[in-house]
Design goal:
Layout (H helix, E strand, L loop, with lengths): L4 H28 L10 H55 L6 H22 L20 E3 L5 E3 L7 E5 L2 E4 L4 H6 L1 E2 L5 E5 L8 E7 L10 E6 L2 E6 L4 E6 L5 E4 L2 E6 L7 E6 L2 E2 L1 H13 L4 H58 L3 H26 L3 H5 L1
Antiparallel strand pairs: 1-2, 3-4, 5-14, 6-13, 7-12, 8-9, 8-13, 9-10, 11-12
Helix pairs in contact: 1-7, 2-3, 2-6, 3-5, 5-6
Organism: Spectribacter acetivorans
Protein name: Flagellar hook-associated protein FlgL
Keywords: Bacterial flagellum, Cell projection, Cilium, Flagellum, Secreted
Length: about 400
């Protein structure tokens, strides 16, 4: 076999170029920390790593969504706690206003505080989240949801759409409650029915207590309790007599699963209307209480109104507590979602590392071996190129 000088040189050159390429590739792997420098190195592994990147990016967005939802829910919980404090104070004032020893001026002072608390409720209803968005406006949260009207009422400008925030691929959580659900749709009375005095009453009879004795027996109808000749008659909305008997103060009048106790001496023709519980606003509850305290109505009517206000406020406090419970349930759901997402992210990142990351210890050892081999090849080439016949003849 004949070996030419050119052939020797080319073979040595090719060997050095190959070793240089391998060394450079290993250096890039060590420097970047990635096993595959292009998709051609391992198409399946690169494609799998890309899918894992996409999944992790989606999980990162879910985590951000959950964090924003948590912040708004925590702010709502704080606002609802303040609302409950206001309602509790209103209840205390209603109890105080029920005291028969108070003079009209004292009741007027109580009514003034009630109106101040009504304004405080309006301020809480317009609570913002610190980002220029309002907590109780639904999806229309760019503007304040509540405003006073010229007649003294309150108008809601938000909507009934609670924004759903996705916290994982299969679940979304409402990041708040709408103002209509929190402040406007509050069960009036005891949550089952309400009792009001007829405006034409002239006697001293007033409602002392009203409760549900047997919820299964109440049909949700409206009734009238009338007094005449020392007795009482209960009629339904069609005028049919449901119950009747002799009126005795502080003795319950029972019918259709309900129990009502009256006190005082009603005049003939006096009556009270019982209606199934309907929704009322927290603002109107406060306004009715202030009106009952300051309007100069007869004592019997005022006493009945005070009983109604106390019942309304008890129901309102339960309503707010139920909303706070719902907020707590959603916060717990966010915590569970965070824990599950973090665990899955760790597993995905480990899988991604297996596909993409280079073994630094192995790569560093390989780089050392390749560098030594390259250096040996270069030294050998220096020696071989000196064996040329031309150098011998020279």
């Amino acid at each position: 076999m004949r070996v030419s000088t050119m052939g020797q040189f080319q073979q040595a050159l090719n060997q050095m170029l190959r070793l240089q390429t391998e060394t450079a590739r290993t250096q890039l792997q060590v420097g970047s920390g990635q096993r595959h420098l292009s998709a051609a190195d391992d198409p399946a592994a690169v494609a799998g790593a890309t899918r894992l990147d996409t999944t992790l990016a989606g999980m990162s967005q879910f985590a951000e969504n959950a964090n924003l939802a948590r912040q708004r829910l925590q702010m709502e919980e704080s606002a609802l706690n303040d609302v409950a404090d206001v309602l509790q104070r209103l209840r205390e004032l209603a109890v105080r206003g029920s005291n028969d020893t108070l003079a009209d001026d004292d009741r007027a002072a109580v009514a003034a505080e009630v109106r101040s608390l009504q304004d405080q409720l309006l301020g809480l209803a317009n609570s913002a989240d610190g980002r220029g968005r309002y907590l109780f406006a639904g999806s229309a949260d760019a503007a304040a949801p509540f405003a006073k009207t010229p007649g003294g009422g309150v108008t809601y400008f938000g909507d009934d759409l609670a924004r759903q925030v996705p916290i994982d691929a299969a679940r979304a959580v409402a990041d708040g409650d709408t103002g209509s659900d929190v402040f406007l749709r509050v069960p009036a009375g005891n949550g089952t029915f309400s009792v009001a005095v007829q405006t034409a009453n002239t006697g001293g009879g007033y409602l002392r207590n009203a409760q549900v004795a047997d919820a299964a027996a109440y049909d949700g109808g409206d009734y009238t309790i009338g007094f005449s000749g020392g007795g009482y008659t209960v009629t339904d909305s069609a005028g049919a007599t449901i119950a009747s008997g002799t009126y005795t103060a502080d003795q319950p009048i029972s019918f259709r699963g309900l129990s009502l106790t009256f006190n005082g001496s009603p005049d003939d023709g006096d009556a009270f209307n019982l209606t199934a519980s309907r929704s009322a606003s927290l603002f109107s509850m406060a306004g009715d209480l202030a009106e009952a305290l300051s309007s100069g109505t007869p004592d019997a009517a005022r006493r009945t109104a005070m009983v109604g206000s106390l019942s309304d406020l008890d129901g309102a406090l339960n309503h707010i507590q139920n909303l706070r419970t719902g907020v707590g349930v959603r916060l717990q759901a966010l915590d569970r979602s965070d824990a599950a997402r973090e665990g899955m992210a760790l597993e995905l990142e480990a899988s991604l590392s297996d596909l993409r990351d280079v073994d630094i210890a192995e790569a560093a050892t390989r780089l050392s071996i390749q560098s030594t081999a390259l250096q040996a090849a270069q030294n050998a080439f220096v020696r071989v190129q000196g064996l040329s016949l031309f150098n011998f003849l020279r």
